[in-house]
Amino acid sequence: MSVSITPNPNVQGPQGLTGSQGTTGAQGTTGLQGTTGAQGTNGTQGTTGAQGTTGTQGLTGTQGVQGLTGTPVSSTFNAQTTAYTLVVGDVNKWVTMNAATSQAITIPQNTFSAGNVIYVQRIGAGAVPITQGAGTTVTSNGATSSAPNIRAQYSSATILCTASNVFTVVGDIS
C-alpha cells in the first residue's frame, strides 16, 4: 500500500540557516554627467582705485621767430585859422582849427578813398561845423547828421571815408 501525501500549500516549514556572504562584484561604469547649472548673478563692482601721480612735465619747445618791428605812429598836424577844404594830403593827419569865430571844414568830392581817415580838432572858441561839399554825403549822430559841429573847444572828431564820396563823422560832435 502506498500512501501519498499531498503537500499543503498553506503550510510553510521553518527557515533554514543564512549562508555566507559572497564576494563583492566589480564596480559598474560611471554614469553620464548631468547638465550644467544656471550661472549665478554678477557681484557688485569694486571701488575705483586712487588716481596715480602726475607725470613729469615735458620739455619746453624752442622759441618762435621774433616778429618784425612796427613803424612808430606819429601824427602830423595841419593847423588852420580860417574856413578850410580838406585835401588828400590830410589823410591820417590832425587838421586843427584855431579861430575865435565859426570856421567850417568842408569835405570835397572825388578826393578820398574808402578807408581814408582824417582827424579834426577845435582849438579856438569859434564853432567848427563839418560840411559836405557838392556831390558828397556825410552821416553822423550830430544834431544835423549831414552837418555835425565839433562840440566844444578842444573837442575832436574823426572823418572816415566809407565809400566813394560817402563819409561818417564820429567823436565829440553836436
CATH superfamily of one domain: gp9
Q: β content, as a range?
A: 25-35%
Q: Indicate the structural class.
A: mainly beta
The CATH topology of one domain comes to: Jelly Rolls
| Average pLDDT reading | 88
Helix content: under 10%
Number of helices: 0
Number of extended strands: 10
H-E string: EEEEEEEEEE
Distance between the termini: 173 Å
Shape: rod-shaped
Task: Let me know the largest β-sheet.
Answer: 6 strands, mixed
Identify the CATH class of one domain. Answer: Mainly Beta
**Widest sheet: strand order?**
1-3-5-9-10-7
CATH architecture of one domain: Sandwich
Instruction: Kindly provide the radius of gyration, computed on alpha-carbon positions and rounded to a whole number of angstroms.
Output: 59 Å
Describe this entry's structure for a reader.
16% of the residues are buried. Helices cover 0% and strands 25% of the residues. The protein has strands spanning 77-80, 84-85, 94-97, 105-107, 117-122, 128-132, 137-140, 149-150, 156-163, 166-171. It has 174 residues and is an all-beta fold.
Short account of what is shown:
This protein is mainly β and 174 residues long. It contains no helices and ten strands.
